Write the structure tokens for this entry.
Amino acid sequence: MDYLDLVQWPAMVITVIAAWYVSSRTQTRRGVGFWCFLVSNVLWIVWGWHTAAYALIVLQVCLAVMNIRGARKNDAV
């Protein structure tokens, strides 16, 4: 069994948790959500590299840029 195949499961769980926190009304929870999204972006990139899913890697890089932007705007509130 290739253990890198299992990376997709924590990536999925962290992505769902991140979405939950980003939808919060409190600034702190939204901040946690953006950081969770960034962790999930890294995990998806690792899994995408392992499986040669290059479109997924590009998508995750784009989403990471948007998550960094969201985290900055959240800090400015």
